[in-house]
Structures are given as structure tokens and as C-alpha cells.
């Protein structure tokens, strides 16, 4: 791989491993602390008291950016009615908040909680997410944890994004050297199998008016079940609580008593309303993780769930920790102000709010201007010039491919699931993959819902095409992973096991994930029944599935390799691989069946 990194940049990545190597190996793994009783959840503002002068700091955090160079469209274009997102507008918001913090005498640090890259639109993905890394450099990102999507193209590619260098296959496609990230990726709980040491730096230390603040970053322990196993064969993913506490102990030895956890795991509010600064009926894996954290952690910037919230959650000592998330796609920035007691080095107070990165033009009555097709008018006054120059460079480079019309739809086809956990777009994608592989004898197709990254909007016209027409760029945004399409032979009994493994408690499954299914395949499920007996009435074209008969089943290779916990799909019996990628199957289907109607979302029946 050609090395195009700036001279000397690599030295800063060696300091922490050199300092901590002996100590890390010697430290015992910290066991999770006993959980304390949770107090009532409130909007976040925490005070710890202090006995001396204060050092003032600020964090600007966001998560799950997913290469959103352009503003989101369709149903995801607005946050609680406010049009938001897109790199040019997010950059404006970040720079404005950074300037405000500086005016208040606060040292501001811009941080992330993973999934900056991966599952990205074509404008970034076509260049192996180099545009996103360069855009984050423009924004002034300083530290981020890895997320599961940072591993979509494997560990070697993640290291290339960090350190720089041309892609080993495609080279430097835009004609310019790629210098890598000016910011630091942290991966405390991702360790190499060969040496049992972190793949990337585990932590970073910043000095805020003389007081050290530690930043530890990690992804969720369950990352192996939701990324393609082929790219992570050389690493293990460790427990979040034990890893966080292990590094807290190390940082404490180094004199750091105030710490921030950048964690790619989270939770969500429920019910209505769900304000951007709310913590209503909050639940999720991050709650138990925070309960096990050492008291040095005062702030947790979280992600993964794509939800916004601002919470005060109890740690192992029962004290409140500020826990935040800025949703997804660069639509929000979390503005966190904190004070440190200069005498003790500990947090004295923390406050946080989520700021919407608006991109619309507001009317006098508080509504937002729309175009004749119903899309929001973009506000040119909120565009950051430097971000626009970079975005336009890549938009121009990719436009001949992205704006090619490949098919048409008759109405919005959404990925939102109905109560039976089936979606109209899930139906269409499963049908597309079945059609793509019927010459190989395929009879059934399954699609993982997490692989459907956006809806298809009838009104969206990124290249100026007519309403209803679909471009390659739009199709790629729906399925951006370039998964292969594979077909395998299963018995009817094995198909039932696959369907049972959609639900927690069967075959090691830890998260409910209902697969989308192709036309003609139907079944019923009841989640109130015991694991292993929840699925019934499985049929193909009205004929009950015979447990002893064999059937040809198509999936993407992520599922076929056991992704999302579907180990029962990894049987490798008569496996064949279709030409092209999963997006090619969708593109062909949209063209050959234009205009494609929304799927009926009635193939799966839920009775409990």
C-alpha cells in the first residue's frame, strides 16, 4: 500500500502504547461493580460540588454520522419537524458552538461515539469513505471511538482510514493522496488475537486548564454478530464494563481523576413526546453498562441506537453520570459544558443539551419552507464554505454514476416496520434477491432488516430526475454494503430453525431480528411461546413446508456467514454466489418491474 501519510504523524500514535504496555498487561480485569438503585431519570444537569477554583471545559459530540455528506431525505429529513443534517450544515453548527465555548473561556474538544463511516451513501462509499474522513477533518473532529461499522471492510481498512495511504486495490481514486484521519480513533475493547493488545489506541488524555481529562473509547462487545465475520478474524471484542474500568484504573495511576467514555452502545426513549434533550422511559444496554462504571467516569457519549437523548444515569457508586446521544446522520450536536475542581482534579458540574443542525429556511410562523414536491428548501446561509468545497468535489466525481436513473417506484417504499415487524421495502428487497437468483433454483429469500439503511422516496430527485424515478445513488443508499448474494440448500426443518433464531433465547440469539421474506413465503409467530416453538404455519405458495424436503434459499453473504446471530444460516450446503452485489439485484428489479409498488408487508403473521 503506498504510504502517503504526513511525515511524523505516526509518532503520536505510538506514545500511549509505549507508555502503557507493561501496565496494561499487569492490570487485572475489573469485575462489574454491584448495581445501585436507579433514581428518577431527569434532563441532564449534574453537580458534584467542589472546594476550589474551576477549570472550564466543553465537549461537542455526535455519533452514527454514517458518511452523511448530503442531508437526509424522506421521512428522516427532519428532527421533530426541524429539517436537519448534512455535512455542510453540521460543520456550521460545530464551528459555531466551538466559537461560543471559546468565547466563554472553555477548552472545547470535538468527540464522536462511532459509526462515522460504514453504511454510507455512494458519494462516500464509492471512495472507500475517504470523503467522510476528510470531512471530519474539516469539522475539527479530535477523538472518536470505533463503532461496529468501522469494521465493515475489515481491520486493515480501518487502520488505513486512521493512518492514511491509498486503497490497496483501487488506489487513490480522486487523484489526490489520502492522509488519513487528523483525529484519533479509540478502540480500547478491540484487541488483537496475536498479542491481546488494542488494535488502535485505547485512550487519550487532554489537559483542560492544567487538569487532565481522560477519554476511553470502545464499540459494543456484540460487534462480531453484526458485521461480516470475514473482516475481523484477527481481533476479539471485550466486555464494555470490564474494559472501561480497567483503563480507568490505569488512568487513575497516571493522575487522571475525570474521565469521559466514548461508547458505541446506547438506548432509547419511548412513548411520546421524545424531545431531543429528553430521557423519557429510557431503556437500553447503556443503562446497565453505566451502572457498572467506576466513579471517575462523569460523561458517557453514546451511540449505535440512532436515537437522541440526554440522561442522568447512576454509576456503580449510585452517583449520576451524564449520558448523551445525538441521534444519527449529523442532525444533532451534543453541547456538553463541564467544570473541573482544580484542587481535586474531579468533575464539579456537567450540563448537556442537544443542538439541532438545522438546514432549512424558517417561515415567520415557525414552519419551514418547502419546494413544490414537498421537500425542504435548504438554507444557503447555513452552509459552511470549506465543507461545501469538499462535498462538491466528491459529488462531481460520483455524479455520473449516482444520478443514473435505474428504475421507478409508484409511491414511497419505506423501511419502517409494521406491528408484524415486516416492512414494504423489506418485501421488495427480498423479492429482488429471489428474482436475481431464480436461475440458480432459488425458492425463498431472506433479508436482514438492519441491512436496509434508508427508504425510497417518490419525491426525492437528487439528480433532477422526475418524481418516482430512482437513481443508482438512491438504490445504493438503501443497500450500501456491497454484500454478495448467495444461495444455499436447506431442509424444511433447518428453515424452521432459522426462523426460530429470529427470537431471543434460541440458538444463542440475544436480540430479536425478524427477517424480511420474499413473495409466496408465509409463516406465523407468537413471542409468548417458549423459545424454539414460536414459529408455525410455515408455507411456500400455500403449501406447508415439508421438514424433510429441501429448498433453495437466498440471502446476502453477511447472513450466510452467521451475521446478526443467524448461525443456522451458516450451513454452507451447496452454496453458490451470484454475480455482482446485493445492490445490483435491487437495481435490476427496480428496472425490470418499473414502476415498483410498495410491498404488502403481510407475509408474516404475528399473534402474540
| Helix segment tally | 13
Separation of the first and last Cα atoms: 54 Å
Residue share in helices? Answer: 10-25%
Indicate the overall shape.
globular
Query: Could you give the order of strands across the largest sheet?
Result: 1-17-16-2-5-6-7
Biggest beta-sheet profile: 7 strands, mixed
Structural class: alpha/beta
Quaternary class:
single chain
Number of strands: 28
Question: Approximately what portion of the residues adopt beta-strand conformation?
Answer: 15-25%
Structure description:
It is built from 13 helices and 28 strands. With 608 residues, the chain is an alpha/beta fold. It has a 7-stranded mixed β-sheet, with helices on one face. Strand 16 (332-341) and strand 17 (347-356) form a beta hairpin. Helix 4 (130-139) runs antiparallel to helix 8 (385-402) and helix 9 (424-436) crosses helix 13. It is globular. Residues 1-42 have low confidence and may be disordered.
